Amino acid sequence: MGRFMRASGTFDQPNPYGGFLGLALPVALSLALWAGDRLMRGDGSRLVAGLWVAFYAGATAISAAGLLASWSRGAWLGAAAGVLVVLVMRSRRAAILSAVTALALGVVVLFGAFTPDALPQPVVERVQDIPAYFGLTDVLSQPVTDENFSVVERIAHWVAAQRMWAQSPWFGVGPGNYAVVYPTVRLPQWEEALGHAHNTYLNVLGESGLVGLIAYAALWTTTVVWVWRRARTGTRDGTAGGRWLAAVAIGVLGLVFHLSVHNLVDNLFVRGMVVYIGLWLALVHIDRDGVIN
Does residue 111 lie in a domain region? Predict the structure, then answer.
């Protein structure tokens, strides 16, 4: 980034920092939209409603700015998914607009990845390696450079996880054994085990096999369905408390989608973020009257 450094906050690394902000962004956006709706409805004091709008809109803007400054592609992709879910859940019009915007943005990003002159150079440097993540280029056969190091390193660890899974397809090599088994399955030049595969799904597959991956998928599928039902419950309630519950649930649904997408290229179960995620899920578990549901 030239004379600039990637933002990392107190995380010391930009990727988990961007991931943390990406988890917060959908919730902040959903609550900002809730506050705006409350102001338009005239619920309670307009001054208080206006202050809530300013607070949540500010939180959304600050989170988005920090996310951009992290320069984390995984966080960007995850945040796009999370924000899209929030907008889609808010209204049908927002759903259509979001789908069109997401499609257009996806085309622009992929076009820029293959055609460097189509986007500003700093952005090109971050998106031109995206096709490699989806197998559109054989990056492992290319020389390792400063520009492609992070991508090649990730894919090398993905290959290692796949080799672990091949050793024991049903149950894997054992939870927490990625770093232990890594030296026996690593690719040449990539001696250091980073602790995880930089892809949560491959990591689970390598360590716990198909049984573990199915269990992991079932856990988060159930979570998505449950949070969605809580959002529907709040919406149907129709009261001010119900609308707040719906806003929180919709934001947390966006959080889960960010987590699911970002974990395709990294592991966000680090730096205590699992506690942060759990606290938001716990908040969804409380109904509009403050009673645990």
Answer: no
CA 225 – CA 231 distance, rounded (Å): 10
Query: Residue 137 pLDDT more than 50?
Result: no
Sign of CA dihedral 94, 96, 102, 105: negative
Q: What are phi and psi of 286, to 5 degrees?
A: -100, 130
For residues 243 and 37, the answer to whether their CB atoms sit within 8 Å is yes
Distance, CA of 86 to chain centre: 13
Q: Is residue 226 very low, low, confident or very high in pLDDT (cuts 50, 70, 90)?
A: very high
Residue 281: phi and psi, rounded to 5, are -65, -35
* Torsional sign, CA 230, 292, 40, 102: negative
For residue 293, the one-letter residue type is: N
Question: What domain range is 66 assigned to?
Answer: 1-90+220-293
- Whole-prediction pTM: 0.85
- Does residue 165 form part of some domain? no
